[in-house]
Amino acid sequence: MSEQHGPILEVENLHVHYAGAVALAGASLRVLRGELVALVGANGAGKSSLIKSVAGLHAPTSGRVRFEGRDITGMPAHKVARLGMSLVPEGRRLFGRLTVRQNLLLGDHRAKDRPARERRLEYVHDLFPVLAERAGQRANTLSGGEQQMVAIARALMRDPALLVLDEPSLGVAPFLVERVLEVIERLHADGMTVVLVEQNLRAALTIATRGVVLQAGRVVNSGPARELLESKEVRRAYLGL
């Protein structure tokens, strides 16, 4: 396999504990460049714990995480972000009293490169035209769906090599969920590598290239997303479908 399509993210035998409780029990995962990988499983399976550990929000008890060949195990989140991984966290975590534009600019670490910043703004406004219309509006006055758009756009302002999304449809009106998923598909079509944790399992496996099933803190199945979705055994045993 060429380097272009080699692994961008490698997780090896990751263990995570919270206050003595086991969140991950030896999870392993490889994400290839250009993939759209959906992490799926029942509530409490360890999906969010896995991506938070990868992104530097939780230090693993043991195991290894490599990003673009570099060991980032236990590296703090701000340093992981600077290496090119952008996380859109569950709950969005916007600065509610700041405007949409201000929130977007906070996602861009190239403060002195104004032409690059303006190109990224143009790109995210093309993805989410409503954000251009709401540029001067405070983030806490937006709908849940619009706030999710801001959160995704803010992550994209960093021009990441890997975009990680944790439950992007949570708290979003159904008609806007479809729009958000369409944008994720477009980002993948544009060449971005994406890892998606999504409560809407059907939607996630429909747009993903590959699905990874977690159960009790371990990866128990992996394969082409549509094959997992169509597998009665997988749907019944792991996904509750």
Task: Describe the protein's topology.
Layout: E1 7-18, E2 21-32, E3 36-40, H1 47-54, E4 62-67, E5 70-71, H2 77-83, E6 85-88, H3 100-106, H4 114-127, H5 129-133, H6 144-156, E7 162-166, H7 174-189, E8 193-197, H8 201-207, E9 210-215, E10 218-224, H9 225-230, H10 232-239
Parallel strand pairs: 3-8, 3-9, 6-7, 7-8
Antiparallel strand pairs: 1-2, 1-4, 4-5, 9-10
Helix pairs in contact: 3-6
Based on the model shown, name its key terms.
single chain, about 240 residues, alpha/beta, four-stranded antiparallel sheet, 10 helices, 10 strands, about 40% helix, about 25% strand, globular
* End-to-end separation: 35 Å
State Rg. 17 Å
Output the structural class.
alpha/beta
CATH superfamily of the largest domain: P-loop containing nucleotide triphosphate hydrolases
Strand content: 25-35%
What does this structure look like?
There is one protein chain. With 241 residues, the protein is α/β, with parallel strands linked by helices. It has two domains: 1-84 and 163-174 and 193-241, Rossmann fold (3-Layer(aba) Sandwich); 92-159, no CATH class. The protein has helices at 47-54, 77-83, 100-106, 114-127, 129-133, 144-156, 174-189, 201-207, 225-230, 232-239; strands at residues 7-18, 21-32, 36-40, 62-67, 70-71, 85-88, 162-166, 193-197, 210-215, 218-224. A six-stranded mixed β-sheet has the order 6-7-8-3-9-10, with helices on both faces. The mean pLDDT is 90.
Offer a quick outline of the entry:
38% of the residues lie in helices and 27% in strands.
